Amino acid sequence: IQAFVLSLQTGRGANFNFADPLWSNYTRLLDDEIFKLTLQNTFIYLLIQVPIMLIVALVLASVLNSKNLKFKSFWRTAIFLPCAVSLVAYSLVFRTIFANDGFVNDLLLALSLIDAPVNWLGNPETARFVIILGLLWRWTGYNMVFYLAALQNIDHSTIEAAKVDGATALKTFWYVTVPQLKPMILLTAIMSTNGTL
Questions:
Q1: What DSSP assignment string belongs to 161-183?
Q2: What pTM does this model have?
Q3: Among 47, 61, 42, CA closest to 185
Q4: What's the alpha-carbon Rg for the chain, to the nearest Å?
Q5: FRET pair for 143, CA 20 to 30 Å: which of 79, 84, 85, 92?
């Protein structure tokens, strides 16, 4: 409530007065081209990055929940670790990797997929791609941990019953496992949407 009241005021320092007209701050905000571009970019990230991240996190959790997988602890730690890295560190890593003389351009040039280095961070479209990639790298492991915890709480007898009935691994996952994960999928979708916005 206090933030809303403050949004109706104008002034400098501690000298705030109510704007005239009262909604002038909102009018100015909605006329600002940078604000509109920021909103557009935010919704692009929301519509592309969040669904990909949740699907990849669910797939990784399913793979890491397998009884036959070796070095489980290593893989779980390696995938979760990026979300423990500071924002500054991961920003610097991605800026270095996607620089004009960075690893990605060197690799693409070596494979003859491009003729000249791509300015990944100087072009709005490719910069969005790099940001989405960075967000995926950083937060997929975080959501994976939630799915992994939920998978370990699933009653294994339901999966065994599906196998006995002749269901394939994909059908078992889609029709038996995923419905039992719905509360966790909803939680991660809400948290990821909130985080992105």
A1: HHHHTT--HHHHIIIIIHHHTHH
A2: 0.80
A3: 61
A4: 23
A5: 92
In DSSP terms, 16 is beta-bridged to 11
Question: For residues 104 and 17, what is the distance between their CA atoms, to the nearest angstrom?
Answer: 52
Dist CA 100 CA 90 (whole Å): 18
Q: Using alpha carbons only, what angle is made at residue 193 by residues 191 and 195, rounded to the nearest 5 degrees?
A: 65
How remote is the C-alpha of 55 from its chain's centroid?
Answer: 11
Q: How far is CA 27 from CA 10, 23, 35, in A?
A: 13, 6, 12
Measured between alpha carbons, how far is 80 from 146 in angstroms, rounded to an integer? 11
Q: Mean pLDDT of residues grouped by 10 in the chain (197 residues)?
A: 88 82 87 92 92 94 87 88 84 90 92 91 90 90 93 85 85 88 94 89
- For 117, how many CA atoms within 13 A lie in the half-sphere containing its CB? 14
E runs forming strands in 96-147: none
The helix, strand and coil proportions of the chain, stated in percent and rounded to the nearest 5, come to 75, 5, 25
pLDDT of 66: 84
Cα 33 to Cα 19, 130, 133, 177: the distances in Å are 21, 23, 26, 46
Give pLDDT, residue 119.
92
d(CA 10, CA 116) in angstroms, rounded, equals 50
Interior angle at CA 58, CA 57 and CA 62, nearest 5? 115
